[in-house]
Design a protein that fits this description.
The complex is a heterotrimer of chains A (246), B (218) and C (637). Chain B contains nine helices and no strands. Chain B is mainly α. Among the domains of chain C are: 137 residues, Succinate dehydrogenase/fumarate reductase flavoprotein, catalytic domain (Flavocytochrome C3, Chain A, domain 1, Alpha-Beta Complex), CATH 3.90.700.10; 124 residues, Up-down Bundle (Methane Monooxygenase Hydroxylase, Chain G, domain 1), CATH 1.20.58. Chain C is globular. The chains are: A alpha+beta (246), B mainly alpha (218), C alpha+beta (637).
């Protein structure tokens, strides 16, 4: 298969970027999307050109490093997968593929398709943890946790922090990301002692980072590679209200 | 006030304000529509005029009117601030953005539908409320006022389009408020869905029935 | 130089407790005067950085990722072992110790393994307290499952994403310390050199991957938790960025490299499908709990698997190993799969795959049950192969997964360079010649949470640290060396890309230093690798600039190191004239085709010392003593 690509190229955060057209030739439908870009880059490198910068690592959908806006969708057209789990069989040759970086004020472009998502880390630093030092903890079985609760907490904890929710949201809101952690720790007994400070701190940090607010369009849920549910945002809202009233 | 300030300081809190004021305004729609149904009474507008008189003179209603205005302004101002902040969160737009794949247009156009409904409201208030309140002597009958206004097909079209937009606004807004309040349990979902239908479908249809009625029976 | 393993005296059960008591402590008020650098933020690095910061040390944490949470520990699927005996099936610390020493084919240090088994229970407690959502039973208690190489259920898990959940736990602990300003975190920095002052590690040089600038970091101790080097094979289950640069540059500064040839080939990976494949995807070994592995009895049988009747299938693991069946350790399962394919029984278009079949389990427990247990793995398989494994058996083939070898460390996890500690997969210590499933997470967290906080204190308390600044000549020299290396790579300006060289290196390694190794093949590799290396330095093309975000520069430096490390691995494999665990020398096998150890001659850790660029490295041997687990021919029959 042969594809025409339109890729966002931007040499640095300060520079002006633009879409540049490339051709990806001899692509097998079983090739992953990133392998297709590898091939384009191989060609660029052979000819001494600067390769297309993009973030990627595990290539099995768990590290959350990769993330591109492909044909107007976060992580491309397939549901429930990260960019690295996208295969070329999902694309038609006739249509050019547009590839853009995540767009958000809180995700400044570093180069080409690489953005700075450290804002998400700072949101976690603002309370997305249980304050427990190493050692001196009780036996793991001292706190029984009903299976349904543990399962729901896990559903939230499955977030890979890729930022697709921010990229897809028209407000560039990080609410789904934030709510996944708040919800996980609010459900578990271990997270209860700090639940109020946690939700207030994390929401304040999200706002300070320049992410937008939630307007319940549910685009985040639709584009999340781990299909994290917006019910976690609802839980965050409850947690937030309860903490504010107190 | 402390709680309000805390809430208003954050994006999540502003959403509560939007949801609360939104639902409050929804309750006004119920009152407004039920009163307006008196237009359909075949008594030459006597009942409707009496209702109009009651609404403009009763102390409780007059007080609530102020609360309503306050709620409305809060909804509007908060919505505008939120919209501006959210717009600012993405200074550089996507070259291609297939938003229709992940969300409904109604959910994405709340500010637009809201703004048009606001323009409508200004015109609407100018036509009816201002006229009845400040120029009551010239137009003793509210009923005649309504009838006159709805005799203009252009005004009717504007009215119907605006109400339709309000419907879309409520289609997203009503259920969205419950998500904002954190009421998102599966067991409540059918209830919210049903109540939502009342607000985004039945009530707007009720309002639309009025110009249609006067267009058919001038 | 003789290797000082510093294994404490006394019975194995008491060694760690006695040792801990013997370690010098740093007064709480003095801890803030010490500065420790932790390189890497995987399970070992994040847990070490967080734990040391909690104790009061000043910690600098760096990683080449944009966030600590991206480290490849996140991809571990199956679980983490701990001998809690919650299942009442006869588990104990001793049994985990025994299984691990045996699983490692008697090439690990008994004392280290015992300590690992001893602290593993605390890891579970720690992680639960952090809010890690482990799988629970209906009564609310922690669930366990069984795993390869063990006959008890001691594996704790969080669906098929245990590594992710444990890493996020450690990441959150680290985030708490970053928030408290006790850890300074620097993302997108790659360590390119270790700086020694008077023979002690006093800092590192790192390349800022955004600007390309070389930066210096000064400290009193340096902890390397930089993972394994499986990517030397190009195709592996490792993440694309995994590399050996940090440990390799430390090796060149004098840290010995232990057992470099011990590589784990994981049996349950999705087979290679095309030339352009960039990595291999592992599917958790836990699949072997309920899936049955088979090949057609008739070689070259290309029928649809569903049309092959039961009596024409060879469930070879169940046949060869009746008591462990499909749950034999990884090295055995991998080697047998290769053997079946070599004999022509392989399936799929390439013939390099065997079936992993769930139909019996689906019949027994229903599809829903299988979905509940393994749903995400089946989904993943579907995404990659577009096949539905509920309907047709999965095809699997072994792939490079883990490197048991790594920098040599003593009982305190300190390398041969004073003040340089090595944790997790980056060290050689606990897994011998083969790692059992669900043991990597255990080791990474044991090192970071429960060992390094004690041992580093002893070093700090007993060492005097003359003040050092980045202006010290040692830092200047390291900076200049790092800058020069990049400059030379860019100056070659040849015709072939870094990836092309990397693939060629990988092919040599897979063919001659992979699942089956021979003296002839290894000898051949010893000429092929240096040839390829010199071609690399003559013909590599690294486009762009060094003062920029440039993935090609990053890869070039890493591949340059792999080119050297590969040779050391081959040398090590060649000198070890025995088969053990993942190291299978075809000349040394039992009549049944099992690995045949030679305890008399090779019961040692090989520790290689760098003797200068171009000079052959020197082999040192740390003899292994087995006092508690008597080495025997490993049997899983």
């Amino acid at each position: 298969m042969n594809f025409t690509l339109k890729v966002w190229r931007q040499t640095s955060s300060a520079a002006q970027g633009k879409m540049v057209e490339y051709t990806a030739s001899n692509i097998s439908p079983d090739m992953s999307f990133l392998e297709m870009i590898d091939l384009v880059n191989l060609d660029l490198a052979r000819n001494g050109h600067d390769t297309i910068a993009f973030d990627h690592d595990c290539r099995e959908g768990i590290c959350g490093t990769c993330g591109m806006y492909i044909n107007g969708r976060a992580h491309g057209p397939a549901r429930g997968v990260a960019t690295c789990q996208l295969y070329m069989r999902s694309f038609k040759e006739s249509e050019p593929i547009t590839i853009e970086p995540w767009r958000a004020k809180a995700f400044p472009v570093i180069k080409d398709l690489v953005v700075d998502r450290s804002g998400l880390d700072r949101i976690i630093q603002a309370g997305g943890y249980v304050t427990v030092d190493t050692g001196g903890v009780p036996d793991g079985n001292v706190i029984p946790i009903p299976k349904v609760v543990a399962d729901e907490a896990f559903d939230a904890a499955a977030c890979i922090g890729c930022g697709a929710c921010v990229a897809a949201c028209k407000n560039s809101s990080a609410m789904l990301f934030l709510s996944a952690k708040v919800s996980q720790l609010a459900l578990l007994p271990q997270g209860k002692p700090e639940r109020e400070a946690r939700v207030l701190g994390m929401v304040a940090q999200m706002d300070a980072e320049g992410f937008g607010g939630c307007s319940n369009t549910l685009a985040c849920e639709a584009e999340c590679p781990k299909e994290i549910s917006v019910t976690h945002i609802a839980r965050l809202n409850r947690e937030f209200l309860a903490a504010s009233v107190k | 006030m402390g709680l309000f300030a805390t809430l208003y300081h954050s994006s999540v809190g502003k959403k509560f304000v939007m949801g609360l004021t939104g639902l409050f305004l929804c309750s006004f729609l119920v009152v407004h529509l039920s009163g307006n149904f008196l237009l359909f009474k075949h008594d030459g507008g006597a009942a409707f005029d009496a209702y109009g008189m009651f609404m403009s003179t009763n102390l409780f209603i007059r007080t609530m009117e102020i609360v309503l205005f306050a709620g409305f302004i809060l909804h509007l101002v908060t919505g505008t601030i939120t919209w501006l902040t959210n717009r600012g969160a993405r200074p550089e737009k996507y070259v291609r953005n297939d938003v229709s794949e992940n969300s409904t247009w109604m959910s994405r156009t709340m500010f637009l539908t809201g703004s048009i409904v606001f323009i409508f409201l200004v015109v609407h208030l100018r036509t009816f409320w201002v006229a009845s309140r400040f120029y009551a002597a010239e137009n003793p009958s509210m009923y005649q006022l309504v009838r006159a206004a709805f005799s203009d097909p252009v005004y009717c079209a504007f009215y119907i389009v605006a109400i339709a937009l309000l419907a879309f606004h409520l289609r997203h807004g009503f259920q969205s408020a419950f998500q904002t309040f954190g009421i998102k349990k599966q067991k409540y979902a059918p209830l919210i869905h049903l109540a939502g239908m009342v607000f985004w479908l039945l009530i707007p249809l009720g309002f639309i029935s009025m110009p249609v009625y006067f267009l058919i029976n001038p | 130089m003789t290797l000082q393993s510093k294994i404490p005296a006394g019975p194995v059960q008491e060694k760690w407790d006695n040792h801990r008591f013997g370690l010098k402590l740093v007064n709480p008020a003095n801890k803030r005067k010490y500065h420790v650098i932790v390189v890497g933020t995987g399970l070992a690095g994040a847990s070490a950085a967080a734990s040391l910061a909690e104790l009061g040390y000043n910690v600098t944490s760096i990683c080449y990722h944009e966030s600590p949470r991206r480290a490849h520990s996140i991809a571990a699927q199956g679980g983490i072992n701990a001998p809690k005996n919650y299942k009442n099936d006869g588990d104990s610390i001793w049994r985990l110790f025994y299984d691990t020493v045996k699983g490692g084919d008697y090439r690990a240090r008994e004392a280290n393994v015992y300590r690992l088994a001893q602290v593993s229970g605390s890891i579970i407690d720690q992680c639960v307290a952090q809010g890690v959502p482990f799988a629970r039973e209906y009564g609310g208690l922690l669930d366990n499952r069984s795993f390869g190489g063990a006959q008890v259920s001691r594996t704790f898990y969080a669906r098929g994403q245990t590594g992710q959940q444990l890493l996020l736990g450690a990441y959150q602990a680290l985030s708490k310390e970053i928030d408290g300003k006790k850890v300074k975190f620097y993302p997108r920095r790659e360590m390119v050199d270790l700086v020694l002052v008077d023979g002690h590690a006093r800092g590192i040089v790192a390349r800022n991957l955004i600007t390309g600038a070389l930066e210096t970091y000064v400290a009193d101790a340096v902890i390397l938790a930089t993972g394994g080097y499986g990517n030397v094979f190009y195709l592996s289950t490792n993440a694309k960025q995994c590399n050996a640069t940090a440990i390799w540059r430390a090796y060149k500064r004098g840290a010995f490299f232990g057992n470099p040839c011990f590589t784990q080939i994981h049996p349950t990976c999705i087979p290679v499908s095309s030339e352009h494949q960039s990595k291999l995807t592992l599917m958790s070994e836990s699949l072997r709990n309920d899936g049955r592995i088979w090949v057609p009895k008739k070689a070259g049988d290309k029928r649809n698997p569903r049309e092959i009747p039961e009596d024409e299938r060879d469930y070879y693991l169940e046949r060869l190993y009746p008591s462990f069946g499909n749950l034999v350790p990884r090295d055995v399962a991998s080697r047998r799969a290769k053997e079946m394919c070599d004999k022509g029984h392989g399936v799929g278009s390439t013939g390099l795959a065997v079936y992993l079949d769930f139909s019996d389990t689906i019949k027994r427990n229903g599809k829903e049950w299988v979905k509940q247990q393994y749903g995400n793995l089946f989904d993943m398989y579907h995404e990659i192969t577009a096949e539905n494994a509920y309907e047709v058996p999965m095809r699997i083939y072994p792939a490079v997964h883990y490197t048991m070898g790594g920098l040599w460390v003593d009982y305190n996890l300190m390398s041969t360079i004073p003040g340089t500690y090595v944790l997790g997969e980056a060290n050689f210590s606990d897994h011998g010649a083969n790692r059992l499933g669900a043991s990597a997470l255990m080791q990474g967290l044991a090192d970071g949470y429960f060992i390094i906080p004690y041992t580093v204190g002893d070093y700090l308390a007993t060492t005097s640290f003359p003040p050092v600044t980045p202006d010290h000549p040692a830092f200047k020299e390291a900076l200049a060396g790092a800058a020069d290396l990049t400059k030379r790579l860019l100056a070659v300006n040849g015709k072939q890309t870094v990836d092309e060289f990397h693939k060629r290196l990988g092919k040599i390694m897979w063919e001659f230093c992979g699942m089956g190794r021979t003296a002839a093949g290894l000898t051949k590799a010893l000429t092929l690798i240096p040839e390829l290396r010199s071609e690399f330095w003559k013909d590599v093309r690294v486009p762009g600039s060094a003062e920029d975000f440039n993935a090609e520069v990053e890869k070039a430096g890493r591949v340059a190191d792999f080119m050297e490390l590969a040779e050391l691995m081959v040398r090590d494999a060649l000198q070890r004239e025995e088969s053990c665990g993942g190291h299978f020398r075809e000349e040394y096998q039992t009549p049944e085709g099992e690995a045949k150890r030679n305890d008399e001659k090779f019961s040692y850790v090989s520790a290689w010392e760098f003797k200068g660029q171009g000079a052959p490295p020197e082999l040192h041997k740390e003899p292994l003593a087995f006092e508690d687990v008597k080495p025997s021919q490993r049997s899983y029959k």
